[in-house]
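Researcher: Quick sanity check before group meeting.
Model: Go ahead. Protein one:
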Amino acid sequence: MRRSFKFLLRPTSRQAASLAACLEDHRQLYNAALEHRRTAYRKAGVTVRYGDQSGESKHIRADDPDGQGRWSFSSQQATLRRLDKAFAALFARVKAGRTPG
């Protein structure tokens, strides 16, 4: 039997600002990774995968210590995995002959 727990989150204003900044930086990471994949395929016909983008995140963190560098590496990997999962689901639907979207 599985149990689930619900926790009420009541952050202070400082914590809420930090959570908003974290969310914004992860949104930017997701969108930049998506654009990287689209541009690489459009211009060179190259498929960029999770492993490629995860390897580049070390350099991204070093170049932007006040932005991407302040969050944990594993949370950024999870963001890149979500993008990879979305692409896998999209192409699975296309391969099955269903409408992608």
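Researcher: Fine. The other one?
Model: Protein two, sequence then structure:
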Amino acid sequence: MTTKARAGSERYVGRIVDEVTAWDGIVAQPHRFGGTEFLLGPREVGHVHRVGIVDINFPKRMRDHLVAEGRTGEHHVVPESGWTTLYVETEGDVDRALWLFRLSYLYLALTMKEKSAGRAALAGLDVDAELDELEPNEDLRAMIERVRAR
């Protein structure tokens, strides 16, 4: 990676970190393999490496759907897991990364709605408006709605 490309990736990563850490209930901390991870309570929403690699975990079925849609890729180290990898190299990639982080955040908040971290995050969210803004397709919306209905 050239110095110029590295500087661009670091700038993009900085924008992602700034945005995600502003969300209710998110705690950012160093990730064990470098970069920054984002936690909602005890659960990891995902993490970003300084060089522009974004890793986000989803339930396997959701992950398979997101990969099939081309919204993200299989994880660069554990491709058969629920983890996904997106390489952030452009402004558009930043938007894609933030979309994926927001989907993960919303999903985790709903799965944790009985715990304090989930309740706190959901208190500041209009889930319907969030879903409308994300514009997930019918299948993704149904996956989220199943969690919400529990």
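Researcher: One line on it for the slide.
Model: Residues 1-5 have pLDDT under 50 and may be disordered.
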